[in-house]
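note to self: dont lose this again. the chain is below, predicted strucutre after it. 474 aa total, dont forget to put it in the shared folder this time
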Amino acid sequence: MMKRSKTLKAAVLLFMLAMTALAQESQELLIRNATIMTASHGTIENGSILVINGKIAAVGKSADIKGSAKAKVIEAAGMFITPGFVDSHSHTALDAINEGSVSVTSMVRMRDAVNDTDINIYRQLAGGMTTIHQLHGSANAIGGQNSIIKLKWGRPVEQMYVADAPRTMKFALGENPKQANFSVPGRPRRFPATRMGVEETIRQAFTEGREYLQRWEKYEASRQRGENPLPPRRDLRLEAIGDVLRGKIDIHSHCYRADEIVMLMRLCEEFGIKVHTLQHTLEGYKVAPEIAKHGANASILPDWWAYKMEAYDAIPFNAAVMTRRGVVVSIHSDSNEHARRFYQEAAKMLKYGDLTEEEALRLVTLNPAIQLRLEKRIGSIDVGKDADLVIFNGHPFSIYSRPEMTFIEGEVFFDRKNDIEMREKLAAEKRTLIERERRNPGQPQPTQPRPAQMPSLSEDLDDHLHGFPHRTRP
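---
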């Protein structure tokens, strides 16, 4: 009995020591006296946010929010705080965008092409971006599987992945998958070459995916009966399509025209599934009731139009019209440059339509989080969510304001003050190295002639060609 008592006391002591060590290691941050734009429950004047171990522990009036004596305190009087921005359609930090050789490439994964050293990660942090949805390009009727990362600059790529993020896949309609505005010299045109061909390509893939699932179901049923059948041949392309049909992978589809938006929704309904999010959706305002009835979301370009024929009928009131019809709408960048000024893209929607300030903010915070099924973790300033936050020196919808600090899970990944100091240090280091090289010239380094320019399948183009080479500029 005495031995059991000693064992119990030892266990309790070990538990208490572990709890003490955990408390000492906990990271506590208090940001106080700011204007907090929560994106979910209004704006809090003279508010504070308490962060413990990367999570929001409390948010409210400064008089009601107190930290412990060990909390790091950031005085934010006169500042504005928003949730970290979420980009539902990005191609940042990817070494490859389009596997455009065939029309269905559901087997490729964007997470296998993430470049954690892409400088655009840091630049977008400087604009308040914290989470991005890395999409495959639009060269295929059915593209690859997408990736969701947090912009943890300086960390290995494994720490950037959002571990519990849903699986998503890129589809595309219109000019890009039928390659009406793109060709490779010496290569014959690829099927499909028409809009109806794009539809049939998707229907055929769904049909093959359904048959693939049936073969595996038959195989498993045979095993359950005690038989020893040969397993079907594994096909990663059809396996991914099968997961779409089983609802394990969400469809995010590039689209422009109203007729094609309705076509894809009807096609998916044939197979008992839904389009999760329509990307670009320039003519979504024409069929907003149909989109809402289907249950799809819409991720849009705020005021881009007429850069190609199928974009001709876009209007800047698109976000407001679809929002008022019950569609969850977000704004996306599809551009490294636009992603740096996301808050200004949202601000435009106050001008074009009757959206409230909070509804406009949700276009780049809570709504894209909903579209990524991550609204329980990110997208608003609420207790229990990740402390992904941006501190602005003024109202975020003013063109005179800028982000001062960006936090991901309570950790600072951009600090403007530190950035300015670092610029001076790097400039001084550069001057020192150049001067040293001038005084002590080393051996000339071997060089290679510049290779011929090959067509690129990157979507990240200034003129927004979605995966096709630059036009010749005057």
